[in-house]
Specification:
The chain is mostly helical. The chain has one domain. Helices cover 64% and strands 5% of the residues. Strands 1-2 form a two-stranded parallel sheet. The longest helix is centred in the first third of the chain and has 24 residues. The chain is elongated.
């Protein structure tokens, strides 16, 4: 689909709808959790498909691109919680 989006209006529309759904979901989560901090983009599909990432960024505004696997952040948070208890 992503490769075809350059030449196929239907595929391009799917990419745009996907970006819209992701943007809506991020907005809903931020609202539900009362979050207003920075956004982080993560996930293989999002970060490996420049057209999708660009479309999502247009909807969400400034966001940091996660360079490591998401699990790395979880490990770092766990490490920090262990060292803060000492």
């Amino acid at each position: 689909m992503f490769e075809a989006a350059s030449d196929d209006a239907g595929a391009a529309l799917l990419v745009e709808r996907t970006a819209s759904a992701l943007g809506d979901l991020a907005g809903l989560v931020r609202k539900q959790l009362s979050l207003d901090g920075p956004l982080v983009l993560a996930g293989g599909r999002l970060l490996n498909q420049p057209r999708l990432e660009s479309a999502v960024r247009k909807r969400l505004g400034p966001a940091t691109r996660l360079q490591e696997a998401p699990v790395a952040g979880a490990v770092k948070l766990a490490e920090l919680s262990l060292t803060s208890d000492e």
